[in-house]
Amino acid sequence: MESKNLFQRGNSLQVRLGVTNYNTPFAAKTSPEYVISGSAIFQVKVIAAQVNNGHTNVYNNLLFVRFVKLRQDDDLTYAIKFTSNELGITNKNFISDDGTWHLIYDNKKQQYSFDVSVSMDIVPSASSFASLHEDLELTDFELRGEDGSVHMHRAVLAASSPVLRRMLGGTWRESTEGHVDVPGTSKMTLQHLKDYVYLHTLPETGLEQLLLLASYYMMPDLEQKCVDKLVNSLTAENACDLLEFAAKHKVTRLLLAILECVQSGAVKVNEMRDHFLRGK
Where is the secretion signal located (predicted)? Predict the structure, then answer.
């Protein structure tokens, strides 16, 4: 199986695959393992068979895909939308599983190529606190930043973060006083955290600080979504700064996602080098 025009950026993947049956009775051909956002593997397999009906060769091809988490100790569940215009498939959904091969298409051609487009996301939690987002009457806890505080519900915080759950469920000073100070964090970042916890929305700016908060409070779903959004807007101009940020704060998810984006050619190393040298 031949692959070309590979393009990867954050949680998206595009590639063109070509298949040729060289008159063999049976063959199984598998694409490379494409790692998406450092979190899951996507792969395509073709089982090709050729028989002669007495007059001509007849070719049968079965196309399969698999989508599996890269780290089995990852508590998140991922989903992809699979699209191929040439196969007539649009936004076919797959959930990360144990690596099962799923049949998606069959044809009777000896030689053919097709496009593949995959977009990955995290499967959201079934519970939702959207109706409590604007509530002020029942809020019973404060997250205090450098320039102001955000009011939230203890139960919502506890459900969103194991760190906050331990703090709120114990005898910590913060639990009895009804607030916690978050040093080095702005009120805006805390509001972004609240917006995600209650509404599953992300801001357009300030993602780096929100990412640090997600890492500190052990919220891997928010951390991954921040990484995906940052890498989806990655350019040669901001790649060096984001790499430095990821290394300085030891944000492994972001560091690996940026390196994968560079390796796939979505961001060119020579363009990064030129930008870096111009800034010195």
Answer: none
